[in-house]
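Entry 14: structure prediction run for tRNA threonylcarbamoyl adenosine modification protein YeaZ. Input pasted below.
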Amino acid sequence: MLLLALDTATPAVTVALHDGDDVIASSSQVDARRHGELLLPAIDRVLTEAGLRLDAVTGIVAGTGPGPYTGLRVGLMTADTFGLALGVPVHGVCTLDGLAYAADLRGPFVVATDARRKEVYWARYADSRTRLTEPAVDRPADIAERVEGLPAVGAGALLYPDTFPRAHEPEYVSAAALARLAAERLAAGEELPAPRPLYLRRPDAQVPKNYKVVTPK
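Run finished. Output tokens:
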């Protein structure tokens, strides 16, 4: 097994290689505006660090969000393209699940990432491997009673200490955590879902109202 894992659902552009035993190379850079520019060099960097070629990859793991439309699309389209070119399976893993796995907390807790517009993408977890709720997008004040008193991880939790007073790192997901989680689930015989994006809301960019299409005469 050689899994190539990547995630662009948060400001972190993160890539890792997992050989079936553990992560053998990884790269993470935080830049919310350069996902498309940074992802392919990061993939090349981890392959070079591991001394491997892309055609050695036997499977791809992609973070499915939730996340902003543009950033999330970069990672998922890259994963699908590589999977098609290499003829290998492409697996999807919820980005929030990767953060939960990296947090390695034993009791109930919350994962929250920054959804912009003064909102967070979030879910509750029983432990680092067990999600209790479907990913959702809400204003922190609207979910305060549901998360009251629980530890929380992620950039969204750190941004809103009034709602998440017990917030701490990790701030962003790492592809290393995604790779370890995916490898663990695959080894247990679990079938991972297809890499379909969790957008949860419409893109920020919208067609203006009263837009008129101009056609040549």
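Notes: Helices lie at 35-50, 69-86, 95-103, 144-147, 155-159, 175-187. Will compare against the previous run tomorrow.
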